[in-house]
Amino acid sequence: xxxxxxxxxxxxxxxxxxxxxxxxxxxxxxxxxxxxxxxxxxxxxxxxxxxxxxxxxxxxxxxxxxxxxxxxxxxxxxxxxxxxxxxxxxxxxxxxxxxxxxxxxxxxxxxxxxxxxxxxxxxxxxxxxxxxxxxxxxxxxxxxxxxxxxxxxxxxxxxxxxxxxxxxxxxxxxxxxxxxxxxxxxx
Length: 187
What we know:
By secondary structure, the chain is an alpha+beta fold. It has 6 helices and 6 strands, in the order E-E-E-E-E-E-H-H-H-H-H-H.
């Protein structure tokens, strides 16, 4: 897609992956620098909004002021996103776990009761929100220290967001990681 900056410079836009998230890649010719490629997300620098990213040539942070509608047309929003109410319920369960940790030394019996209650609530939450549970698992894997495991998690998360079957995306993610670990068992 072709667009122009606020100063009239022609910009080529295409979808890209930026730190595991949907983003845009812009290619433009800047005076004194020549052709520059920037990959980034919509953001703001010093009160000016636009594509904020890193140049491929000198790794500099740059803001390209383009119309938001053009950016949105290139960066397609996911078909699915986690339900905010469900995520709020999960945060409540996490707060109960935190409370249990505070009682750990003073009242061990109360700590055990709270932990059991949180585990029961989490199991019920997983049943009520299987897609969100799968997305959270993929999100956790996407943050793994192993680049291969993280890549499998990012692919599963993207598939879930794009509307694929969550259970199949998770099964494929686990199978991909199992194959990778089997491949390196004797390294």
